[in-house]
Amino acid sequence: MPIIEELSDSNDDNSSSQPPPHHVTSEQQASAALDKALHIVRDEAKPIEARYHEILLQLTPLEIYFPSAPPRTVPAFEERILTLLRPHPALVPSIASIDDDDAKETSPALSLYHTLSVKLLRLLKPHTLTPTVDFALTVSSLTNPDDAFTSTEASTIAISLLNSNNPSRYPHDIVITGILKDTIKPLFTHRTVSATRITPAGRLAIRDTTANADLIVDNLPWSTTLPSVMAVLEWVISTGLTDADLETAWPLLIPPILSINDSHVIKLRTRGIGMITMLLKRLEMAKNDLLRRTGLGGVLWEAVERGLGYFPPLTAVKDCVAINRKATECLRLMARVREPEETERRAALLDRIVREGFVKGMVYAGEKLELVEVLVNGLNSVIEDMGVWAVRHLQAVLPLLSEILGNPFGTTYLPLLHKTLQAEQTAICTCWPRLSEHVPELLHGISACWAQILEDEQVPRMNQTKKQDLDALKTELRKTAAMVEAVMIALEKSEGNEASARWHEIKRSVIEVDPGFEGLFEGA
After folding, report:
1. What is the residue-wise DSSP string for 304-334?
2. Number of neighbours of residue 4 by Cβ within 10 angstroms
3. Taking the CB of the first residue and of the last residue of the chain, which one, N or C, has fewer CB atoms within 10 A?
4. What does DSSP assign to residue 368?
5. Which stretches does UniProt call biased (Acidic residues) (predicted)?
6. 3 state SS for 2-46
7. Distant-in-sequence, close-in-space partners of 502: CB < 8 Å, separation ≥ 6
């Protein structure tokens, strides 16, 4: 339990010389201040910002009282502090405005609540005994700074308070019963498409009941009753649960996670995908085959894969970037958890990320370089995961990478070119036995990029930093060319002299186009 220390009384030597006529102990003063603050926060007649402003004035003396209080536990203080800490629903933007940055409802009370939450969290002391449901639920509400009502400072303090307890000190009756069953489960009674495909026991439903799904859910109970529910779920999954409780918690976790993930609000769906990733990491670390035994691998995969389908102009670029990155990470992990041994079946799952994520994404990404960079990063990771099975995608993927490298304005954003070369190098390393037929496409991309660098270097009085950046890119281009040559020479063993001879012919034809390309093959 957090220890809220009782305040010192009139025995203090510095204050006992002139006691007031009707002496009130410092504990009584603190208690009265908290009671007044609770009365203020419940006064619905006043605007929320006015209430928090008054509360801050009421609590100022507590910062003086509490540090000097004797080390005795006062549970009543903790209960009232936790009540004040709970984020008020008025602090949270409506569901309809979460994705609209231009129209986002920002409560003027947020900055006041940020200050108040930090002050109140600092009054709580690390627990030495088993904490209460109220403590775990309220403090975990403030662990994610992505929530509008949680500041970075408050998040740091809240995590520290929760981590001061060994996870084994959060017993079954707190996390499973108190938080998941009694608090969160009643808030997710609506049946989304994914939620209708599972049984109350958290297993795959035999009968298809998706026709009974609530397709449009605008008034979500948790958004007003417990607006911090996502932060609480994230804490429960990542820290609050022990490995032994994973199976018991499974049917209580999956429905709310899928309901959040099925939201039409992209930012909520992104958080939902993040929760699935956390849960999969726990299963992988514990070597738990719960995903296979419950038959929910396909349901979770489809729920997350939909996150790869958001592109401009219908979706803001930063939202596309966030959900694509999260979805790709989650699907890669899910492929490992679903098929830990069978590499071919795992590669078949990863095929879908390449097709639905990278190839389709490049059609819509256009000149949105931040999104293109995320797509290329994801492709690089997936190729590495697939190994030699990625060879079946080279015909579709390499021309898209060459297009990035050959963009006339590509050198204005060098990080993307570096990431693209890294993806090509990964493809060369993993798919080299079948690379011979793709060498012309590889050289097309790197030579086009090299030509653009040579053109940029003709600019008089080039910035020294820019010159160094271009030199670093040229080094990566040479490295890629050298890797291609090494592969062609290695293939000579199986193809006679044909592969090596073909490489020299290709290299000579490139240099004949422009002598400047000779520098591309230095060391190759």
Report:
1. HHGGGG--TTTS-HHHHHHHHHHHHHHHHHH
2. 24
3. C
4. -
5. 1-12
6. CCCECCCCCCCCCCCCCCCCCCCCHHHHHHHHHHHHHHHHCCCCC
7. 436, 439, 488
